[in-house]
Amino acid sequence: MEETQARRRVVLVPVPAQGHITPMMQLAKTLHLKGFSITIAQTKFNYLSPSHDFTDFQFVTIPESLPESDFENLKPILFLLKLNKECQVTFKNCLSQLLLQHGNDIACVIYDEFMYFAEAAAKEFKLPNIIFSTTNATAFVCRSVFNKLYANNVLAPLKESEGQQDALVPGLQPLRYKDLPTSKFASLESIMELYRNTADKRTASSVIINTASCLESSSLSWLQRLDIPVYPIGPLHMVAPASTSLLEENKSCIEWLNKRKQSSVIFVSLGSIALMEINEVMETAFGLAASNQHYLWVIRPGSVRGSEWIESLPEEFSRMVSDRSYIVKWAPQKEVLAHPAVGGFWSHCGWNSTLESIGEGVPMICRPFSTDQKVNARYLECVWRIGIQVEGELKREVVERVVKRLMVDEEGEEMRKRAVILKEKLRASVKDGEEFVHFMKTL
Ligand code: UDP
Question: Is Glycoprotein found in the keyword set (predicted)?
């Protein structure tokens, strides 16, 4: 009994980005419900303030001296590389303070795979450590084999012409070269450096992934070749929903949705990081207007390059915004997707958005920007067959056509039916994390 009592606190280290904080907090809530005490160790960036959902949690700050400008100006991959170097030592100080405070109560450290600096500190203090992947299992497989594929020259087409980009990657079908989790905002060398680090399990006791086996059984089978246990414990938003929004949700859109017919609205939202050029916003606006469908559009402040919000957009933009549309800065996304009026989701295919959409049986239009979003989009279109990917230049005619395909055509209706079947499968597969918690108690 004493031994169990003495190993009850878990220290969790999230990446400071909405799409990573949310699943980490859902995991924290899951563990809390199972009787663990929780410490969240965050950097100052995107600091999540303790809310009513987390009153029993301890929040501590990992000291570091990176300037805010790095966070604002560096692209995510470069920022993560820098953050890991910076926190390598400072997290040790943070953890030693926590050990002074909680002693043997600390059971383990769970870190986002992109916060791999946490492993060194856990190892130094002989604490078990666990990797948490907030992206999907297939992207995890890609990251794991990335350096090997590069060394074997399999990734050569990544550096070559457009034609090669459409070829299937040997061993990773149905992914094409263009679907691999690369980014046009970082060099292949920087990506390889990051993935070399995330793929290195070091002293980790296990890997947990925010996915479900009914979505990614073959990638999860592949991961069995790792010499540590892998637990698919998602989708965590269904296991332990938590309120984690860093921006204020505009709930007035729900009133607007209440006045719309069933499955008549397309929800447009590109997550918390993606940026659009002004011309892309304008083409999207023209295309949406021409589709004659109702649409709810999240335009996040700062998400239109060169503009605070929508004030720098050409005048035609406001003329297109009619009673068929509603624009907000940030929406209660899960509530929106669960609303019966929503029949489709135009998304950048972040993994949380993908899981939230599948969880509500909403088919998607996929417009990925970078990294794992491309993997998700390919799976939505080719594996789960509940998405249509928009590739190439964004033109108003393309937007109009694809929105009609999803919202009006028979093709979209079929996708909606498949999405409902997948939703039911996913809901039936949700577990309460018991197996993983049992494993944690053995550490
Ligand atoms: N989100 C939200 N309101 C919005 C847009 C996004 O609450 O208006 C949430 C969404 O529900 C999801 C998260 O922000 O949980 C975005 O995470 P995702 O992995 O989809 O994309 P990322 O932001 O990491 O690119």
Answer: no
